Structure prediction request, 487 residues.
Amino acid sequence: MAGTKGLLMLENFIGGKFLPCDSYLDSYDPSTGEVYCKVPDSGKKEIEAAVEAAREAFPIWSSWSPEERAQVLNRLADLLEQSLEELAQAESKDQGKTLMLARTMDIPRAVQNFRFFASCILHHTTECTQMDHLGCLHYTVRTPVGIAGLISPWNLPLYLLTWKIAPAIAAGNTVIAKPSELTSVTAWMLCKFLDKAGVPPGVVNVVFGTGPRVGEALVSHPEVPLISFTGSQPTAERITQLSAPHCKKLSLELGGKNPAIIFEDANLEECIPTTIRSSFANQGEICLCTSRIFVQRSIYSEFLKRFVEATRKWKVGIPSDPSASMGALISKAHLEKVRSYVKKARAEGAQILCGEGVDTLDLPPRNQAGYFMLPTVITDIKDESCCMKEEIFGPVTCVVPFDSEEEVIKRANNVTYGLAATVWSSDVARVHRVAKKLQSGLVWTNCWLIRELNLPFGGMKSSGVGREGAKDSHDFFTEIKTITVKH
Ligand code: NAD
Prediction:
């Protein structure tokens, strides 16, 4: 819907209807720095309306059979797939990522999320044990929890939102989703398909706006017993505080400071391009991106030379450019934050080998005010530096040498985060040994970002609480009850 000044105007989706809001936020096109969209600035009032709609829909939706709900999810997946190109264009414009990535990763994965959980819901089993000496049979049943609050970040907007909506509604819950205020467009587009897919009104409600206003209203609402959140650690802390008085069920998927450990027997032909991708894919704005690269000293110089050469070929371009590997960062504030880390590293005496402050960006005049930055490689940096400790969440990676296996495990674990690690070696025994000792919810060896959706996804330490995946998401979005029958 085009607004008065030709801007895209989004509306909340509550009880199956698009509803305008009293006030709106500006949303920017990261590749130009121009406002192109208005996002509802919702608050308590909209959350009350959404809770009412979700409460009314719950008894109906939760009484449908898993097969009936699965059919609806599959229809939704088909509808999204039919609009893949339109959704990819919108995601790329809204987030700044390349159109190629939106087309090949974000939107296909959103489609897959619905298909995957449509299938999963048909295959869960519960437990049963017997106590013959007491004449008892014990079994468990799982039931949906109620109204789920789903809060998602801006880096993989539709991909991560649907990773929550799909398992929540497959299990029979109704939901109130709050996408990031920076990237709300594809969530709004999703709402247009719900009715056609057969999702009853009130099952999926989407309320737009900022974290402190509408996010907190959702988290604090006493009738929303569970919150699934993906985002930053400080926000998770706030959500935990607000949920505490209500003892809410929480799933927290947070940031990372992910190490890549490269041993001297690594296959560099595969390792270098993959580590370039793991450092800079989606502008380095993926929670799983590598930001600390530990290289065994005997191959350190060779690795560094080849890695910097390859980084310089990782082209920054406007998101629609098919030859671009990287688009624009999400916002001006985020760009400045990412740049400030490079500045701090320089002030500490580290070397910036390529990228920020070393090379120059080549952009068309229309995109000069966009939030672009070159992929940047830092070296000669201490493990204690903030660039080696804090999540930068941009196209910046640090490369440092190590000598022994024992030493590198200790250094890799020496951060508060524990989300994803990669290990490169052709020694299978070493790969198993190191993977086991790393404090990380996910370890990829000789690869990166190959996802098996059945298995648990999530982080240790400050990277989160809980896991997502086929069984884990089902466990989270259901309550379990143990029933004992004496005969
Ligand atoms: P963020 O924490 O600023 O925001 C995430 C969401 O929370 C947004 O929708 C935001 O509006 C909302 N929010 C903010 N303050 C809130 C509050 N007080 N109450 C309720 N909701 C609130 O994070 P971000 O900047 O959007 O995303 C980047 C972060 O997300 C990074 O730390 C990244 O590592 C993390 N992330 C983690 C995963 C994972 O699966 N582990 C995936 C993607 C991103």
About this structure: The longest helix spans residues 99-120. The chain has a mean pLDDT of 97. Residues 262 and 424 are 5 Å apart (CA to CA).
